Amino acid sequence: MYSRPIVFAIMATVVILVGTIAMMVVPLTLQSTQPVSPLVKPYTAVELEGRDIYIREGCNNCHTQTIRPLRTEVVRYGQYSKPEEFAYDRPFLWGSRRIGPDLQRVGGKYPDSWHYRHMDNPRSMFPKSNMPDYAWLAARQLDTSYSYKKTHVVGYGYTVNEVNKNLADYLVRVTSSAYIAGDARDKVTPPVLKDKLTEMDALVAYLQKLGMDVKNLNKS
Amino acid sequence: MKEEGYDYSVVQGFAFSALFWLFVGLAVGLWLAAEMVYPGLNLAPWLAFGRLRVVHTNGLAFGFGLGGIFACTYYMLQRLTRIRLAFPRLAKFHMYFFNAAIALAALSLFAGMNTSHEYAELEWPLDIGVVVMWVIFAINVFGTLIKRKEKQMYISLWYIISMTVTIAVLYIVNNLEIPVNWFKSYTVYAGANDANVEWWYGHNAVGFVFTVPILAMFYYFLPKSTNLPIYSHRLSIVAFWSLIFGYVWTGAHHLMLTPLPEWIQTVAIAFSIFLIAPSWGSVINGYYTMRGEWDKMRSNYLVKFFIMGITFYGLQTIQGPTQGLRIMTGFFHYTDWVIGHVHMGTMGWVTMIISASLYYMIPAVNGREIYSVKLANTHFWLILVGQLIFTITMWIAGIQQGAMWKASNPDGSLTYSFLETVTAMYPYWKIRFAGGFVYFLGIVVFGYNLLMTLKSPEEATQPRTA
Ligand code: HEM
Ligand code: HEM
User: In chain B, what are the domains?
Assistant: First the structure.
């Protein structure tokens, strides 16, 4: 074998495939690895767009989205994570580093206005925070040309009309005079984009969805 | 003494490409380290921490790491088979392709095209490019091996073969994704499955980029630069097969206490502990190779790099399994401690070995002496001290951070707000920057020394001593 490169390569492949099959292929076939639950809802089109911005900006390099079953962690962040909650997460965003706090249950923790102000300038609220400013996200209109295709690729099963309605409804929500966070949004959004969906709007929608399935369950 | 009859232009090309990406990656690393204390440095979207961190990791793991690995592989492959590369023009193409791919990768990551899978952040068109590049590399590896003149394959070749096949499997499986457009795709796996596949990949990317090929260099260049044979061939055989067998089981130690099924975590930890044996097999092989010849630590500057490098590898492979244990991970996971682990491995082990390998090869392929042994020694001490400042600071920081996250009052409420645990880290992060800067200076000396070696006069007759 030590004088036959091809045989050697085949042997090496077989050796690494043993662990690969046991630890990676077999779990893929087991329901227990990624169970689904009717209580967990997929992201709406606008939330999915927000999630893509979260990925693009690499928020996951500073924030985790998984709460471990440890006492202090549950006190700090809320109920520990269940596998069902991630059934629609493609990719998963559990993260590996906590420079900032966990965000898995940040939805509903603060009003929208808090997020607009915080994303615009974290240091205006916490002078010692090291989170970057994301003010420019409010100055960029949300590109919705692929919104339907995206929900289609990840298999959420929305129709084109449903996606368009979701985007239109969300625009109405954030631009209506009744929107409670309207003032905060107006402060950070440039005048030309006030009646358009911005990337910041989508990101806030996403953050407010995080962990809500479990929180709603607890309420009912 | 110039070594004739081989194709060394790609060796040299890859070596200096690796050096170039090392500079870029470290400059980015220093910027990152500064941003963590002075957030005002997030000057533009493409400079924001979230985007920059992946440029740092990819630039160093793939630009520097893989570049150095290709350089050394093409050198070792020819020396150990005693023939020229099977396809020299293909190898040259590989070199240009590699640099173009890394440049495009950096640009796309700056632009935020990012799949979020750690160490597999590139979007799908680049993934296809990487696979094509790997096939080109594999053709030369196997082509040369098949045509070789030396019957037995030396230890280093085993490591190179296993890297070549394993990286291919890992990369393709983890990057299966469905495109939305040219710049965006979604992975085919969801939730916990995606996490499990990703860390099967991620851990083995560390294993088969930062361990296996680096061991190939160690097994080749240590005996070469000392004229001492490797202590035990049998130990090498056992260590090799058990290392590559064990590595692939352990990915889930990156997912401890997450919603991944418990049995996967437990098996991963068991195999992590098992890995101590083959890892230390190589450490012991290295140490015993030097037995009775330890004065070479002083007289031969290359030995210092190799022995310090393998020592950090030994420490790394004790620390890794320990920090994966449930009781430890509950405390250290997500903290700066892990950043210390990462940088002991990369700045201690990987950089030490690649540095020494380049110091051996660049003079050899040019028929010259190293420009300055003194500068090489300076380089050694700067990267050693810089690394130690960096990693020790991060371990202390990690302990404090873990303790602060967990601290609670008698009534069960938390003692510290999250922000308090962040601001408590600022002094450590400043010291880390200083450590990184010292290390960076060492690399500047390294680059200067290698470049000046190219310029120094050819010494065709003198055999190389050092
Ligand atoms: C001047 C020297 C260096 C500096 C200042 C530096 C700085 C940094 C910083 C600030 C981070 C982020 C830490 C965090 O998330 O808290 C990081 C992460 C990382 N660096 Fe470096 N670095 C240096 C050298 C290197 C080298 C030489 C390599 C590889 C060859 C490397 C590989 C990595 C990797 C893989 C990570 C990600 C760790 C993780 O996700 O856990 N770094 N570095
Ligand atoms: C027996 C060998 C090893 C074992 C069992 C091991 C174990 C571990 C564990 C458990 C973690 C996760 C820590 C956490 O997030 O809580 C980790 C992270 C890491 N290790 Fe090791 N380690 C080993 C050797 C190495 C070596 C030789 C390197 C070379 C540079 C290395 C580089 C890394 C990197 C880059 C990470 C960070 C991954 C990330 O979160 O992005 N490890 N290791």
Answer: 9-455 (1.20.210.10)
Are B255 and A2 inside 8 Å of each other by CB? Answer: no
- Whole-angstrom Cα distance, residue B228 to residue B155? 15
CB contact under 8 A, B264 and A23: yes
> Using the beta-carbon criterion (under 8 Å), do B261 and A32 form an inter-chain contact?
yes
From the list A205, A216, A161, A203, the residue with the least C-alpha distance to A179 is A205
Sign of CA dihedral B169, B170, B173, B176: negative
The rounded Å distance from CA B39 to ligand 2 centre is: 28
Contact of B282 with B218, CB cutoff 8 Å? yes
pLDDT digits (tens, 9 = 90+) for B202-257: 999 989 999 999 999 999 999 999 999 999 999 999 999 999 999 999 999 999 99
Residue pair A145/A114 in contact (Cβ under 8 Å)? The answer is no
Facing residue for B165 by CB, picked from A12, A30, A66? A12
With CB atoms and an 8 Å threshold, state whether B152 touches A2. Answer: yes
**What is the pLDDT, as a whole number, of residue B303?**
97
Paired tokens of B252: 């889930």
With CB atoms and an 8 Å threshold, state whether A23 touches B112: no
> A31 to chain B: nearest residue by CA?
B193
Structure tokens at A115: 């997020």
pLDDT exceeds cutoff 70 at B460: no
What is the per-residue pLDDT for B1?
42
Return the pLDDT at B464.
Answer: 47
Q: Tell me: the pLDDT tens digits for A65-100?
A: 999 999 999 999 999 999 999 999 999 999 999 999
How far is ligand 1, taken at its centre, from the CA of residue B345, in Å? 10
Closest chain A C-alpha to B425 CA, distance in angstroms: 10
Q: Which of B50, B194, B423 sits opposite A92 (nearest CB)?
A: B194
- Please give the C-alpha separations between residue B66 and each of A93, B105, B146, B218, B426, in angstroms, as whole numbers: 27, 14, 23, 16, 33
What integer is the mean pLDDT of B150-165? Answer: 96
Interface ipTM: 0.96
Ligand 2: distance of its center to the CA of B202 in Å?
9
For chain A, what are the domain ranges? 1-34, 38-219
Residues in contact with ligand 1 by the CB-under-6-Å rule are A 96-97, 99; B 26, 29-30, 32-33, 36, 53, 56-57, 60-61, 64-65, 338-339, 342-343, 346-347, 350-351, 436, 439-440
Q: Is there a contact between A97 and B255 if contact means CB atoms under 8 Å apart?
A: no
| Residue where the block lists tokens 């910041």 | A200
Alpha carbons A207 and A188: distance in angstroms, whole number: 17
Identity of the residue in B39, B166, B190 whose CB atom sits nearest the CB atom of A16? B166
In total, the C-beta contacts within 8 angstroms joining chain A to chain B are 244
Instruction: Say how many Å lie between the CA of residue B328 and the centre of ligand 1.
Output: 22
Angstroms from B259 CA to nearest CA on chain A: 5
Superfamily of segment(s) A38-219? Cytochrome c-like domain (1.10.760.10)
Biggest CA pair distance of chain A: 78
How confident is the prediction for chain B on average, in pLDDT?
95
> What does the alpha-carbon distance between residue B274 and residue A9 come to, in Å, rounded to a whole number?
24
Q: Which residues of chain A have pLDDT under 70?
A: none
Q: Cβ of B180: how many Cβ atoms within 10 Å?
A: 18
pTM above 0.90, yes or no: yes
